[in-house]
Amino acid sequence: MSPKTMTTTAGNPIPDNQNSVTAGARGPLLMQDYQLLEKLAHQNRERIPERVVHAKGSGAHGTFRLTHDLSQYTTASLFTTVGKETPVFQRFSTVAGERGAADAERDVRGFALKFYTEQGNFDLVGNNTPVFFVRDPLKFPDFIHTQKRHPKSNLRSNTAMWDFWSLSPESLHQVTILFSDRGLPQSFRHINGYGSHTYSLINGNGERFWVKFHFKTQQGIKCLTNKEAQAVVAKDRESNQRDLFEAIEAGDFPRWNVQVQIMPELEAEKYHIHPFDVTKVWPHKDYPVQDIGVLELNRNPDNYFAEVEQASFSPSNMVAGISWSPDKMLQARIFSYADAHRYRVGTHYEMLPINRPLTPVHTYHLDGSMRFDAPGGPDAYYEPNSFDGPVQDEAFREPPLKISGNGDRYDHRQGNDDYGQPGDLFRLMSDDQKNQLFNNLAEGMEGVPAEIVQRQLGHFHKADPAYAAGVAKALGVASQG
Ligand code: NDP
User: Fold this and answer.
1) Are 219 and 355 found together in one domain?
2) Is residue 344 part of a domain?
3) Is residue 54 annotated as a catalytic residue, yes or no?
4) pLDDT band at 377, cuts 50/70/90?
5) Which residue's alpha carbon is nearest to atom 30 within ligand 1?
6) Is residue 274 flagged as an active site residue?
7) pTM of the complete model
């Protein structure tokens, strides 16, 4: 058989791929035409469930090059040898739209990175915003319901969005970013990325530092107005996919300066801002950003489905020397992201080439869909065992968390300033940015009942009276205060 002979999935040669087998030229099909049956069966299975959030995305391969040694903070090898290049895969996305949604929409952009380190995979699953809408994962499914379609009308609902936001003032910071000029990026190359959550770094002395990751675009921030976006979408629903793909094909590789903010462990107890609250940033004057390296995207995937649709990022993928923080949203994502992939890709999704680490994997997870090797060896399929199977290594034990407390449901609304940082952001905007914010919000509130609008204006007012006055004017309603 020639290497180019077409085969069935079992490797059997296919003699004819144009004419199905029939009993005579005008007779019915024969059951034995296995090639026909296999083609039809495969066609029925060409889709997997789309992601419930971040369904529409684009991805590319690249590298992270370390420019500053972080060994005083961490043992993670990707951060300790200046000049080291760690391969990465990155997926950008919109959040609310389905797989076929237009790219140029006002929405947060996902900024998910998988670092294939020599210590296993480290996934940093962030956004183009440093904060998020809610700080407690109990509220996350409800929040996402408001971003998706109304169960009866099957339409997106401004009323649901603003009802939820106006009843959840912790969302104001992210709402202000979403409706600012930066809420509608021109392309994935022109956004910043943020790890958003607080993570931790652990050094060789067992000392822990809290860390926030930032990725500043070298291409510059570029945004679209609502009107410009409408014109883009009318002509091209894949504007961000096209921009990223074509730039990389042309050798114009996008880059980001990678930065960190670092906080010693015990400062978290007394810092005036809750350092694990994902609705807050750490102001730069308190914790300056430090450059650590450069992220470059330089290779397009060969197959979109295999490499982008099946790319499975999860904050549970963590290497020695880096760890999580008590951020409640992060803690929930450790479970829910991996769980989403088990559901939509399959039990052993991490065995797929795009997800598999470069390092050997030694688990005792046994069977389930897509199992195709014997991880522990033929006899070592449980642990402990006497057959030289893989064992735990105490050297990787993390130092105990110094922060402690009593297990309870602590009211996250108590003692939390939901207005200071949105106000800070508003005040740093130029007049033009402020006007865009007012008009974007007024457009976004179209059709929302007056009572909900008034409730939301009350939040804008608490952030800054000029914020509420500007939105009220754009809406043509009475201002608060
Ligand atoms: P700084 O003046 O030190 O930092 C301001 C930051 O705001 C810069 O990183 C800038 O990013 C970013 N920024 C500017 N315009 C916008 C916009 N329209 N939408 C979103 N981000 C914008 O002040 P602070 O650190 O005290 O932060 C003040 C406010 O800035 C915060 O409340 C927060 O809303 C926002 N911010 C803060 C960040 C942080 O980590 N401290 C990160 C991002 C935003 P760039 O340098 O790219 O222009």
Assistant:
1) yes
2) yes
3) yes
4) confident
5) 425
6) no
7) 0.94
